[in-house]
């Protein structure tokens, strides 16, 4: 219903903002990650929006960028994860860190966040890993034709691009990691590639 709100930032708190759009003030709940990217009150701002409707309650949620909103919506699709917990997760880790924990099969990174239990973290990783892997990388970047001939490399490269790594860095890590892994699954190749990037 609402794609975004563009106007004057009237108030900003770590968990909510008020945006004046043509004389109408809209209150949106936000994550601390979005809060830290906002201008000072009185400045012009564009906040992406998500309207959550439950029974007789309608609440707007705001996001600084599309990646955060997209991840918020994916989290809401998980049983037991409501908007309050989804925002807590987005406040507890950066979007890239959450995606990395999911595709690398590391639920322990998530249950360190207040309110996220071990079962919920495991469910998030299990149900979202394939969906995160299939997300189009930011900027519409595509794997090279060489890697696209190999579906395993293609999936791993897409995962790293989605996590925000440059194509050259991701490609080098994937190729090197695959060379010394025997019959790996996608998650094995992604995990090994992430390790290679961190230690390079």
UniProtKB/TrEMBL annotation:
Organism of this sequence: Prosthecochloris marina
Source species taxonomy: Bacteria, Pseudomonadati, Chlorobiota, Chlorobiia, Chlorobiales
Region (Domain III): 147-200
One of the protein's GO biological processes: DNA recombination
Family, as annotated: Belongs to the RuvA family.
Known role: The RuvA-RuvB-RuvC complex processes Holliday junction (HJ) DNA during genetic recombination and DNA repair, while the RuvA-RuvB complex plays an important role in the rescue of blocked DNA replication forks via replication fork reversal (RFR). RuvA specifically binds to HJ cruciform DNA, conferring on it an open structure. The RuvB hexamer acts as an ATP-dependent pump, pulling dsDNA into and through the RuvAB complex. HJ branch migration allows RuvC to scan DNA until it finds its consensus sequence, where it cleaves and resolves the cruciform DNA.
Protein name: Holliday junction branch migration complex subunit RuvA
Major subcellular location class: cytoplasm
Keyword DNA repair: yes
């Amino acid at each position: 219903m609402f794609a975004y709100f563009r106007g004057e930032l009237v108030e900003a708190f770590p968990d909510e903002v008020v945006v004046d759009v043509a004389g109408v003030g809209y209150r949106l709940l936000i994550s601390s990650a979005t809060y830290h990217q906002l201008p000072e009150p009185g400045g012009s701002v564009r906040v992406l929006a998500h309207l959550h409707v439950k029974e007789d309650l309608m609440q707007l949620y705001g996001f600084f960028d599309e990646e955060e909103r997209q991840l918020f919506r994916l989290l809401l699709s998980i049983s037991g994860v409501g908007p309050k917990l989804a925002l807590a997760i987005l406040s507890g880790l950066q979007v890239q860190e959450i995606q990395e924990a999911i595709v690398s099969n590391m639920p322990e990174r998530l249950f360190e966040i207040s309110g996220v239990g071990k079962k919920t973290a495991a469910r998030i990783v299990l149900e979202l890993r394939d969906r995160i892997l299939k997300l189009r990388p930011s900027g519409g970047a595509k794997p090279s034709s060489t890697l696209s001939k190999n579906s395993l490399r293609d999936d791993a490269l897409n995962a790293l691009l989605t996590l925000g790594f440059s194509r050259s860095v991701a490609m080098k890590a994937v190729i090197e990691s695959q060379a010394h892994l025997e019959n790996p699954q996608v998650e094995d190749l992604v995990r090994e590639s992430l390790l290679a990037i961190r230690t390079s």
